[in-house]
Every structure is written in structure tokens, then in C-alpha cells.
């Protein structure tokens, strides 16, 4: 059982790109600073870094992460806030070790 | 009945007098170490908790709560829960208890739960403990107090343990002695000859059932000295400082031949603060000098409390950054914004990638 699951995890992680990595990273940083990072912040940040210009694309990035259980979306007082999951943390760790760069979030102040 | 949850809760519960205690933990080994009338093992299915405890991760406590939900919710009615706010087991399980209390429509007075919460000393304890405490106070504790469904909440601080370099056993003994003195108020009223006022078990329970923070202290009362001064020099350093009192209770024990009318001075003190305390004055022939046990109920907003912790936590981060700059030696001490410069420097050096791993660990995800 352990073997195919590890393989699945590796495949999922292998399909992520820079925008996904950023979202995982920013969610974690925000949580660590006791801030909330929501979908609108994600849209602003990804737009700023010219990953996309549409909110739909941001939804798609987030949805992909959510379906793979790497990111959790919590409704907190009208806002949909993003939280990295334990799986997400492992994915981010793997990606960082593979040499992905972490881009600064404008919202979180660089 | 006293219900001790997690490591600190279990150890402390067995040092308190009076009736039976129940201990709850997710680690069987820890559970068996505790002295208790009853032991409850909460189960975590991940396997990780079972082997190594909650490792400061409250999510494990919250999950473990599910396995004992009905039994525990039943048990806390009209009783006292004691836990630390920093760890994973006691805090995680108590989080769920508070959450469920906060969601109730109404809790009758006799079913209110009182909480003794042991806060870390933010200057010396790991940041996970401090961060857990911030979450805990700003969320479930605050919800439960706001709902009006809890009884008194006692906020104990571990500061004195560190300041006085005490052993854990010594410090727990000290906490227990202070609490025992307070909880003995109705028993002392029964035991000794009553002179003025009265506090019976029902009065005491009613007082405990109010949804406020409780601060108490006991000291030898000096008749001639203003009470303000005495309170200022006899603070209970084991507890967080109180805010303006909303209600109060005191027991004055006077030795043989002493004039019990000194209790009017205590009443005057409260009158000037618009508080009408419940009180009792008894003759205790075992004493040489008068002794006052006094409790205040206050409603300091939990977010003020949290702010104190956040301030300390932020200061610590700043200090760390400052230290790292000093080590890099790139900047003179006169630079305007040290933090920003440090961040930039850390990023230039590719530290961001290393930092993220520690961030993930710090938020309990890795
Ligand atoms: N006063 C006191 N504090 C303790 C004791 N044991 C642990 N703590 C404090 O409790 C916090 C850690 O939580 P702990 O109860 O050990 O974790 P848990 O078992 O996961 O709930 C830290 O702030 C410790 O300083 C104890 O015996 N007495």
C-alpha cells in the first residue's frame, strides 16, 4: 500500500508549477505570522508577479491544490482563507529541496 | 472533581486536595505515571500521538477528543478542568470542550465548568507554547467567556517557576497550596465560629459559576495598613494580574481576642470601587495574626491578554533577527530598519528556502 501512495504523491508534486509553489509558501508564511491569506490576496500576488491576469486562473490553481489535499480552504467570516495542509507542507519541502525558488508575496510585504 | 488533561494538567491535578481527580492523556505511559482516582486514555488513530504524545501539536489533542467526547462532556459538568495552554494534548482537548460549551444555548449554574489554565512564561519557553497559547486564548477561551456559559477561568503563569529556578514538583506544590487555600473557603466557614457574614457551599459554587476570570490571593492581614497597599505588596505572582474587579469575595480569619471589626476596612475598600463582595469573618483560634483570603472576578478581554503574548513573541523574533545581523556583521548598529534589512540580507543569502522548512515546522504542518 505504501509504495503506490508514495508514487502518487511524487507525481502530484511533480505536476505543480511555480504559481502552486508560491501559493503553498504564502499560505504557510501568513499562518506563521498569524495573518490570514485569502483568495483575493492570492489573485493580487499572482497578478503582481505576472503569473496570470484572471481570477479564474487563480481559482484553478487553488482548486488543483485543494483536490490534492495540499491546501485547505476555510470560510472565515465571509472570506475564503487558505491554509497549507500537512501534505502540502511535505510537498513544499520536497519542492524547495528540488531547487524551486520562493517568490515574495506583495501582500505579506516581500 | 478535578479533571487534569495532558502532561501539566495530570501532574497538577494530583497535587490538589479535595476529592477525586481524573486524568486524561493520549499516551498510555504518561497516563500510568499520574496519581489519579480515574484514568482515561484518549485515542489518536494516526499512530504518531500514541507513540510520542502530541509533540506540541494541538491538532492531535483535538482529534483525540473525538474518542472521549461524550464521556468528557458529561464529566466536565459542574467540575473543574486543569490544563496547560502551551502543549498539544491538554490544550487541544480543552479547545474542543470550550468550543462545545460556547455553542450551547444555556448552561445552568450548577453545571458550569471552571477552568484552571497554566500559561507558559513567554520569555523562556519555546515559541510553539507561546503561539499555541495565543491561538487558544483568542479563540475557544474567548468564545466560551463571551457565551457566558463557563464558570470562572483561572489564569496561572509559569513565570515564577523560571524566575525562582524552582523544580517542577516544588512549583506544582506551590500552585496546589494556593488553590487549596482558596477552595477551602466554605470548609473553613463550616469549621470555625462565624462572626460576620457567611459563605456556604452554595454561595461559593454560585461565585465559581460566573463567566469571569478569577484572581485570588491570601496573606496575613495588617489591621492598620490600607488594603490597597497590602494588596500591592501581596500580589499572587502565580496568577496573571487582574483588571478592575466586577465582583469580589473574601474570608477574614481572626485569632482569639482580635477585634473582628477590622473587616469594615475591607468592605470600605470595595465600596470605593463600587463592588459589593460576599464575605465571611470567622474566629480561627489556631492563628496568631488575622489572615485574609480574597478573590476578584474581572473581565479582562482575552484579546488584551493575547496582545501581551504577541508583544513578547514579536519582540523575540526581532531579537533573533537582530542577532543574526550582528553575526553577519554587515550592518552597523545605526541602520534605520534593522528587521527589513535583515530580511533582505537573509533572502539574498538564499535563506528563504531554509526558513520555509522551519516555518512549516513551527506551524505544526511538518
Ligand atoms: N506548572 C507546570 N507546568 C508544566 C508542567 N508540565 C508541563 N508544563 C508546562 O505545560 C506546557 C507544555 O504542555 P504539556 O502539558 O506538557 O503538554 P501536553 O501533555 O501535550 O498537554 C509548557 O508551558 C510547560 O512549561 C508541570 O508539571 N507544571
Short description:
The complex is a heterodimer of chains A (110) and B (366). Helices cover 57% and strands 11% of the residues of chain A. Chain A has 110 residues and is mainly alpha-helical.
Number of strands of chain B: 11
Tally the beta strands of chain A: 2
Rg of chain A computed from alpha carbons, rounded to a whole number of angstroms: 14 Å
Question: What oligomeric state do these chains adopt?
Answer: heterodimer
Largest interface: A-B, 19 and 16 residues
Cofactors and ligands present? Answer: guanosine-5'-diphosphate
- Find the structural class of chain B using helix and strand composition: alpha/beta
Strand content bin of chain B? 15-25%
**First and last CA, distance of chain A:** 42 Å
Tally the helices of chain B: what do you get? 15
- Fraction of helical residues of chain B: 40-55%
Uncertain runs of chain A with pLDDT below 50, 5 residues or more?
A: none
What is the CA-based Rg of chain B, rounded?
Answer: 23 Å
Unreliably modeled segments of chain B: 330-336
Taking all residues together, what is the mean pLDDT of chain B?
A: 87
Helix content of chain A: 55-70%
Distance between the termini of chain B: 38 Å
Amino acid at each position: 500500500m505504501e509504495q503506490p501512495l508514495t508514487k502518487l504523491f511524487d507525481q502530484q508534486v511533480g505536476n505543480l508549477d511555480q504559481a502552486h509553489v508560491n501559493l503553498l509558501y504564502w499560505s504557510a508564511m501568513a499562518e506563521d505570522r498569524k495573518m490570514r491569506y485569502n483568495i483575493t490576496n492570492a489573485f493580487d500576488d499572482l497578478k503582481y508577479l505576472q503569473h496570470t491576469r484572471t481570477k479564474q486562473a487563480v481559482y484553478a490553481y487553488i482548486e488543483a491544490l485543494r483536490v490534492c489535499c495540499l491546501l485547505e480552504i476555510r470560510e472565515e467570516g465571509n472570506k475564503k482563507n487558505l491554509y497549507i495542509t500537512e501534505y502540502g507542507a511535505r510537498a513544499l519541502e520536497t519542492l524547495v529541496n528540488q531547487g524551486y525558488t520562493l517568490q515574495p508575496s506583495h501582500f505579506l510585504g516581500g | 472533581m478535578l479533571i487534569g488533561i495532558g502532561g501539566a494538567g495530570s501532574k497538577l491535578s494530583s497535587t490538589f486536595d479535595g476529592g477525586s481527580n481524573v486524568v486524561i492523556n493520549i499516551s498510555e505511559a504518561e497516563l500510568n505515571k499520574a496519581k489519579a482516582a480515574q484514568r482515561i486514555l484518549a485515542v489518536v488513530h494516526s499512530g504518531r500521538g500514541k507513540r510520542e504524545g502530541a509533540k506540541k501539536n494541538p491538532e492531535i489533542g483535538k482529534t483525540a477528543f473525538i474518542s472521549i467526547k461524550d464521556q468528557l462532556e458529561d464529566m466536565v459538568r459542574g467540575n473543574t478542568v486543569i490544563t496547560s495552554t502551551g502543549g498539544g494534548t491538554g490544550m487541544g482537548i480543552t479547545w474542543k470542550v470550550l468550543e462545545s460549551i460556547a455553542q450551547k444555548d444555556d448552561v445552568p449554574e450548577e453545571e458550569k465548568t471552571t477552568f484552571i489554565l497554566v500559561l507558559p512564561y513567554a520569555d523562556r519557553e519555546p515559541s510553539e507554547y507561546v503561539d499555541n497559547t495565543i491561538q487558544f486564548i483568542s479563540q475557544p477561551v474567548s468564545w466560551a467567556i463571551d457565551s457566558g456559559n463557563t464558570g470562572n477561568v483561572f489564569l496561572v503563569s509559569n513565570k515564577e517557576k523560571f524566575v525562582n529556578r524552582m523544580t517542577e514538583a516544588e512549583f506544582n506544590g506551590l500552585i496546589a497550596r494556593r488553590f487549596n487555600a482558596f477552595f477551602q473557603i466554605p470548609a473553613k466557614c463550616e469549621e470555625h465560629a462565624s462572626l460576620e457574614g457567611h459563605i456556604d457551599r452554595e454561595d461559593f459554587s454560585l461565585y465559581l459559576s460566573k463567566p469571569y476570570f478569577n484572581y485570588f490571593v491570601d496573606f496575613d492581614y495588617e489591621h492598620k495598613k490600607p488594603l490597597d497597599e497590602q494588596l500591592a505588596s501581596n500580589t499572587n505572582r502565580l496568577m496573571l494580574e487582574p483588571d478592575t474587579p466586577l465582583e469580589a469575595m473574601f474570608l477574614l480569619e481572626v485569632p482569639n481576642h482580635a477585634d473582628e471589626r477590622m473587616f469594615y476596612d475591607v468592605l470600605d475598600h470595595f465600596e470605593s470601587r463600587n463592588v459589593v463582595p460576599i464575605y465571611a469573618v470567622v474566629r480561627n483560634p489556631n492563628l496568631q495574626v488575622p489572615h485574609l483570603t480574597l478573590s476578584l472576578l474581572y473581565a479582562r478581554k482575552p484579546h488584551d491578554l493575547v496582545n501581551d503574548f504577541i508583544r513578547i513573541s514579536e519582540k523575540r523574533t526581532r531579537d533573533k533577527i537582530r542577532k543574526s545581523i550582528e553575526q553577519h556583521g554587515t550592518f552597523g548598529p545605526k541602520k534605520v530598519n534593522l528587521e527589513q534589512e535583515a530580511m533582505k540580507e537573509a533572502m539574498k543569502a538564499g535563506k528563504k528556502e531554509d526558513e520555509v522548512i522551519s516555518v512549516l515546522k513551527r506551524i505544526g504542518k511538518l
